């Protein structure tokens, strides 16, 4: 997946519009985009959205955080709709994933879903304390599919007055971003870049997405439908990258017993082969 578009859980109209676009995944949101008094209604609407799904999108549901006491109620309401995955906000570490996984096992069985198939993506940097739990995701659950970093709630947790200047995040947020990327790599799950909030600045969005891809992120969360095509294009390999990857794969295919090869005057080895396959979506 390259693009994960948030859709308010109380807006079937926005869901229908988002479903017409090219996002790889839609995240139906029961958390920040739904006020407290509308959450019960939003659960029912979210279930209806899941049941009207299009095969062209993966559908995730962002539930409310564990410390709200609403997570299990959210899960019980939406699991009959067989979402592809759950997005857990304000996650503190692997123990939170294990708790949600335990609930999912029972709810899958009750809904006739193959046990273990519902994935979990964690928003893993929204509080100061969550930063110290990033190393605990590795091996916590086979359900874990991705770690997303977020800056909006983190700024409130830190008591900061500004997150960025001139389109560049300040150091606490760059630290959270980089640690989340490394935690995802260590856990062998997808690293997902945070949302871009300057809605009409598509040039800035493209630059931020290309920087995320350069550093190793494989997807980006989005809050507006017009961001989808920009992000999808930014995550696509360039022609030069594709040509290089094809040459690397062909070189190793011709020399299956070699661990190191010379290609265009440069030495390449198995990490280059892994990188080439990733560029072409072969791993």
What does this structure look like?
Helices cover 43% and strands 18% of the residues. The protein is an alpha/beta fold and 283 residues long. The model has no long low-confidence stretch (mean pLDDT 94). The chain contains 11 helices and 12 strands. The protein has helices at residues 12-19, 39-51, 71-78, 94-111, 128-131, 152-158, 171-187, 202-215, 228-235, 239-254, 270-279; strands at 3-8, 25-29, 58-62, 85-88, 119-123, 144-148, 164-165, 168-169, 190-193, 219-222, 260-263, 266-269. The protein is globular and about 65 Å long. It has an 8-stranded parallel beta barrel with strand order 1-2-3-4-5-6-9-10, surrounded by 6 helices. The chain has a two-stranded antiparallel ribbon with strand order 7-8. The chain has a two-stranded antiparallel ribbon with strand order 11-12. α5 links the parallel β5 (119-123) and β6. The relative contact order is 0.10.
Features:
alpha/beta; globular; 283 residues; 11 helices
Strand content: 15-25%
How widely separated are the two ends?
13 Å
Radius of gyration: 20 Å
Structural class of the helix and strand makeup?
Answer: alpha/beta
Which stretches are low in confidence, meaning pLDDT under 50 for 5 or more residues running? Answer: none
Could you tell me the mean pLDDT? 94
Give the overall form: globular
What share of the residues lie within helices? 40-55%
Q: How many distinct beta strands?
A: 12
Give the ordered list of helices and strands. EHEHEHEHEHEHEEHEHEHHEEH
Number of helices: 11
Q: Strand order of the main beta sheet, please? A: 1-2-3-4-5-6-9-10
Largest sheet: 8 strands, parallel, barrel
């Amino acid at each position: 997946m390259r693009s994960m578009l948030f859709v308010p859980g109380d807006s079937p109209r926005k869901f229908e519009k988002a479903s017409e676009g090219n996002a790889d995944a839609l995240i139906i949101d029961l958390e920040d985009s739904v006020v407290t008094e509308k959450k019960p209604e939003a659960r029912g609407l979210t279930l209806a959205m899941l049941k009207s799904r299009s095969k062209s999108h993966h559908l995730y549901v962002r539930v409310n955080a564990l410390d709200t006491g609403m997570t299990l109620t959210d899960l019980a309401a939406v699991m009959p709709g067989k979402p592809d995955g759950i997005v857990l906000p304000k996650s503190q570490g692997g123990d939170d994933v294990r708790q949600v996984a335990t609930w999912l096992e029972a709810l899958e069985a009750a809904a006739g879903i193959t046990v273990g198939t519902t994935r979990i993506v964690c928003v893993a940097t929204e509080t100061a304390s969550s930063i110290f739990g990033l190393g605990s995701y590795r091996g916590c659950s086979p359900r874990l599919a991705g770690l997303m970093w977020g800056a909006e709630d983190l700024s409130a947790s830190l008591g900061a007055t500004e997150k960025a200047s001139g389109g560049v995040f300040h150091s606490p947020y760059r630290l959270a971003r980089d640690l989340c990327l490394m935690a995802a790599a260590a856990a062998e799950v997808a690293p997902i870049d945070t949302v871009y909030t300057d809605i009409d600045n598509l040039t800035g969005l493209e630059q931020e997405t290309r920087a995320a891809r350069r550093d190793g992120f494989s997807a980006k969360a989005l809050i507006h439908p017009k961001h989808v095509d920009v992000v999808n294009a930014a995550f696509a390999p360039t022609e030069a990258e594709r040509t290089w990857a094809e040459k690397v794969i062909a070189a190793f295919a011709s020399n299956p017993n070699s661990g190191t090869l010379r290609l265009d005057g440069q030495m390449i080895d198995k990490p280059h082969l892994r990188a080439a396959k990733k560029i072409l979506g072969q791993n």
